[in-house]
Structure formats: C-alpha cells, structure tokens
Amino acid sequence: MSDGADGLRPVCRYRALVLTVTSVNVNGLRAAAKKGFVEWLARTEADVVCLQEVRAEPHQLPEEVRQPDGWYVVHAPAAAKGRAGVSLYTRREPDRVRVGFGSAEFDGSGRYVEADLPGVTVASLYLPSGEVGTARQDEKVRFMGEFLAHLKALRARAAADGREVVVCGDWNIAHQQTDLKNWRGNTRNSGFLPEEREWLGGVLDPADGGYVDVVRALHPDVEGPYSWWSYRGRAFDNDSGWRIDYHVATPGLAGKAVKGFVERAATHAERWSDHAPVTVVYDL
User: Fold this and answer.
1) Mean pLDDT score of the chain, rounded to an integer?
2) What pTM does this model have?
3) Would you list which residues are annotated within the binding site for Mg(2+)?
4) Catalytically annotated residue among 89, 112, 126, 211
5) Is 275 a catalytic residue?
6) Sequence-separated (6 or more) residues with CB below 8 Å from residue 228
7) Edge-to-edge, what's the strand order for the sheet holding 245-249?
8) Distance CA 107, CA 157 (A)
9) Which residues, other chains included, contact 100 with Cβ-Cβ below 8 Å and sequence gap of 6+?
10) Active-site residue 14, yes or no?
11) For 180-206, what is the mean pLDDT?
12) Is 3 known to be catalytic?
C-alpha cells in the first residue's frame, strides 16, 4: 500500500489515517538479525518501529539492519560499548530527532530517543533494569526521577503545540499483579517493587504524569498480555511472563488506539528475542 503525503498509510478514502507503532527489546540487534528480525522487519506493517537493547554501534550492524530500504533510521548507542542502545525506524523522515532527554548522567547511556512526526512525537525508551541492593538499582531510581520530570515537560510542550506523544519501550516495571504471572514470588525483586510500581502509577495518574497505558486500556480485564519471558526453564511454553513493554501515550492519542497486541512467536524456537514486539494501531 502506498504512503500518504504525510507518510501515514491511508486505509480507505472514507477513513482517517492509521498509524501503526511497534516496540520491541531485541536483546542484541546483531544476534536478532541472524535469528529472524530482518525477515520480521520486511513483513511488518508498522509505520514506526522502536527498538531497545540494540547493544551495537551503527557501523557494527549489517546494512539491511543499519539502513534498510524504505526506512529512516536513527540509532542512539550507549557510550559503554555493548550495552543498552535504542533505535527508531520510521517510514517517513522525521521533522526532528532528539537523543536523550537533557540529563547529564543519562543522555549518553543509549536509553532514549524521540522523533517528531506529523502531529505526534514517538519515543523509544529503555529504562534501566536494576537489581535490589546494588548500584544498578540506585541508577534506576535516579533515572526514574529525572525521566518523570521529562515526561511531564514533554506532555506540556506537546499540548501547547497541539501534538500527541507516545513513549514506547522496555519500562522494566510490571505495574499490576495482572502484568506478571508469578507476582507473589517477585514482590521483593526489581521490576515489581512497591516503589517502582508507585512511580509508574504516577506516570499514569491523570493528576500527575497524565499518560495512559494504551495496551492495558484496550485489555483492561486480562492477565498480560505478556511481552517478556525468561530463556530459563519453560517460561515461554508455560506463558510465565512479564508485561514490561508499554505504549505510554497522551490521552488524546490513547483514545484513538483501536487495536493493541503482542506478536508472540508460535514456538520457542522461532523467537529472535526474549521479548516479543508490542504493536498498537492508532486510527487518527
């Protein structure tokens, strides 16, 4: 299907334009490219693809991943080699791209990149994973504090400009009990700590952060749908997963979401990451 003049795909002449956005933690893009990511990218109908945990410099990526035909790509690697890294693939050339969110500590960590498209800002986020009782958890807490301030400022700027926002990515927090299978066994583990869940609740509080968890809004009464499963044991086969990959959007855009789903592989052997793509269709 040909693109519209603004880079979005017209569904038919009687309907508004559709924007399809997919987010996935690739768990190392070079490895994912050898296991099925390239083929997935070739067949996806997404207009925007947000990647996390790329773990590579652009020059280390094969050409069909670094700059595939039909896509505009921005890679934001981490200063620490082989760690983190986020990317954005867009069918339309962005009007503006920003790496980082104005943080002296985190702008070089390969954890955030955003792009302005017509009427909407799309961002790819890789929030630190943390580990209780270590410096990694302290880093996560500092990141969350700075990032919430950025989210509020971003929402305010977008509202002033008549724009919407969606921040996609691996947020490394399961918000509610329905967001992970074994919640009872993880109440003291990073990713499901009370203080982390409270922070994410603040992001989603209309009186605070003012954002919406789009997939949960579309699926309010179900467990999951999970987007990450450990490679250990039979977690994937038993669907013992976590929902930590989110589309977090301003209310105006969230209200236009008509479909949200996890692109779960049919079998364990067909996975090209320990995460699965999370896709949302917005009827603009």
Assistant:
1) 94
2) 0.93
3) 25, 53, 170, 172, 274-275
4) 126
5) yes
6) 25, 170, 241, 242, 243, 244, 245, 274, 275, 276
7) 96-99, 112-117, 120-126, 164-170, 245-249, 212-213
8) 20
9) 76, 106, 107, 108, 112, 113
10) no
11) 97
12) no
Cα separation values, 257 from 8, 9, 23, 86, 272, Å: 15, 15, 15, 24, 27
Among residues 213, 247, 275, 282, the one annotated as catalytic is: 275
Task: Tell whether omega for the bond before 220 is within 30 degrees of 0, i.e. cis.
Answer: no
Paired tokens of 69:
């035909």
- Find the catalytic residue in 47, 75, 89, 170: 170
- What is the amino acid identity at position 245? D
Binding residue positions: 25, 53, 170, 172, 274-275
Domains observed in the chain: 15-283 (3.60.10.10)
Confidence of residue 8 (pLDDT cuts 50, 70, 90): low
Which pair of structure tokens corresponds to residue 7?
A: 């880079």
Q: What is the pLDDT of residues 242-265, one digit of tens each?
A: 999 999 999 999 999 999 999 999
What spatial distance separates the first Cα and last Cα of the chain, rounded to whole Å?
17
**For helices 135-161 and 194-203, angle between their N-to-C axes, nearest 10 degrees:** 10
Phi and psi (nearest 5°) for 227? -125, -5
Residue 162, C-beta contacts closer than 8 angstroms, at least 6 positions apart: 119
Q: Could you tell me if 48 and 169 are in contact, meaning their C-beta atoms sit under 8 angstroms apart?
A: no
